[in-house]
Amino acid sequence: MSKSCKLLFAGFGGQGILFAGKFLAYKGLIEDKQVSWLPSYGPEMRGGTANCSVIISDEPIGSPIVDNPDVLIAMNLPSLEKYENAVVSGGKIFVDSTLINKKVERTDVDVYYIPATQMAYDNNIKTLANMIITGKVLKEVDGFSMDNIEAALKKVVSARKIELLGVNETAIKSGYDYAE
Amino acid sequence: MSEKVLMKGNEAIAEAAIRAGCNHYFGYPITPQTEVAAYMAKRMPKIGGTFLQAESEVSAINMVIGVASTGKRVMTSSSSPGVSLKAEGISYLAGCDLPAVVVNVQRGGPGLGGIQPSQSDYFQSTKGGGHGDYRNIVLAPASVQEMASLTFKAFDLADKYSMVSMILADGTMGQMMEPVSLDAGEVNTYEKPWALTGTNCERKHNIVNSLYLKPEALEQKNFERYERYKKIEENEVMYEEYLMDDAEICVVSFGITSRVAKNAINEARAKGVKVGMIRPITLWPFPKKPLAAAAEKCKAFISVEMSMGQMIEDIELAIRCKKPVLLCNRVGGMIPTPEEVLAKIQEANEGGAF
Amino acid sequence: MSVVFEKPKSLTNAVLHYCPGCTHGIIHRLVAEVIDELGIEGKTIGVAPVGCAVMAYDYFTCDFVQAAHGRAPAVATGVKRSDPSKIVFTYQGDGDLAAIGTAETVHSAARRENITVIFVNNAIYGMTGGQMAPTTLPGQVTQTSPYGRDVETVGYPVKVCELLSNVDGAAYVERVAVNSVKNIKNAKKAIKKAFQNQLDGKGFSLVEVVSTCPTNWGMTPEKALQWVEEKMIPYYPLGVYKDIYAEEEAK
Q: ipTM of the predicted structure?
């Protein structure tokens, strides 16, 4: 991984935006990286746009706020429209193409379209589009891998829902293996 | 060191309080600090402690007074509008010389304001807030780790000096997650001969009171209190210096803005600008000495804060206005960007503003 | 020589600052007698209000904390939660308990906080020199109702016992008076019960004591006692307003 990777997850409240970010943060922690996770909070959590800033770095993290992400994960149209131009040149944008018809206009970034929500429906794991798209992130972003996904999931899936560990893993894998 | 866990800042405060021996918590829901109450509600019954959601912030702080008067560790938390309501109780805690920890996870104001992060309660916490001559120890965490370690420290300082220690955080600090080690070491215990424990018919009654109808007695009480405050100013100042050795420009910032400023300082350094930072960890006592020393060698200061310019007054006082102090601020829940801070550093470096 | 009457052990030797004819002295004594009789002096913690009884901490031998105006029940909640084995009581006036501290009163009752509240109702703010209180009677002249309390503009008195009788959490609520020997005896019984309830873990117990303020009422002490009988008690009828345990027994 490059020295520091700044990710911005953005979508609707209820899409598991914060959860996916937390998973990546925990994975970083397990791999001895410096990590930070900062959610948007307030009324937008309940239905409006939700987003979270995640930084995974080899060095101590200054500001936890991601204004200009290296990686944008956009899970709805307003999020893509809002943050497309904030992504650094040479950065990566992951688009849930089930929910976003629009194409990214910029040409100085790598774009990955993945029908995460459709795939989640098809695989009967409706609520896990977030983890499918996260799987794709693990595949395409330098420094990420499939290492430690079970350990990281164990940290973020609550004990009461431990039976969901397996489907989360499946979701990540299907995203990882998805070929456009 | 114990294993690091990812925790929200608000939860780190709550867990650290419990580990500091705080078994009593009183609160009232308000964004963005509600996780403190939620965490306490979950944990306190399991350790035989008290979690009570009061009918108001006013009641919550007075319940705190009740527990504090019995000599036990106790905490309340809120966000800006709620802390205004607690101001009465904080003044009484000061007047009664009672130890307690008050947490303010700030949001924009005045009035109902907003719910996004702010630092505009700087005056309120460092200069009073309630009525009368008094001080609070004010600790300003800049990471989730510090949310925990400074909470632990706050209980110690409160007991050591029999007064209120305040954690002055902001919405970002409360909501963000970072790895945190909760292992804080031994809890110091302090004698509290004044505590209301029942006379058991063996001693004269203890009275916890802030009323002195004889002005001579009240004056004396205030003198004594300020002697204690002087000791705190001598012994308890905490701050972090960042790249100050050869700095010509000194950024002063606390909490979340100090993190943003660090990014800007690194960028400025990459461009060859000699800039460093003094980050106050205690806002009261304010790190006057290192700032005065910096004034001898720096050509300008920049106060980066999320208020209309509150801490900047303390910087100017600390350096006796020897050097210009620029303000770099956003308010109302807005957070300065590293670019904005960098621009201000460049402005200071070029001397354009003065 | 046998002693037939003496100062309760739970009162200090401090000279009371109350005005001549004020009934605070009687109520203090009743509370102290009860503390003596129950043998709880060593484990009692009092909470003083803001008002005439602000310096109650000087008069009782037990530990005491002085609370901000109206906040005594919240402070008492903290003290009691800190150590439930202690006996915790507040001693509050009408302005303190029924105006600025209404929320604290109602909610400590709603929580069935296991504390004892002694509520002294003399229909006026005494300490500040005789202003209209939440319990000032309709038509009553005070410094801030110089033409008599006009209910059309300033509203009606708050009847605390009646109010709390509708709060599920309140365990025991009784109104007594101290204007006659018979009433004083009843008052002591009620106060004792309110403390005994706490010892038995029965929860929030409040005794409202209809009291006098000769100085601010502008009456002789004797006339003041008469005024209680003729004006106060008809508006604030004495009796038990709530006793959940008696109700249970009756069932």
A: 0.92
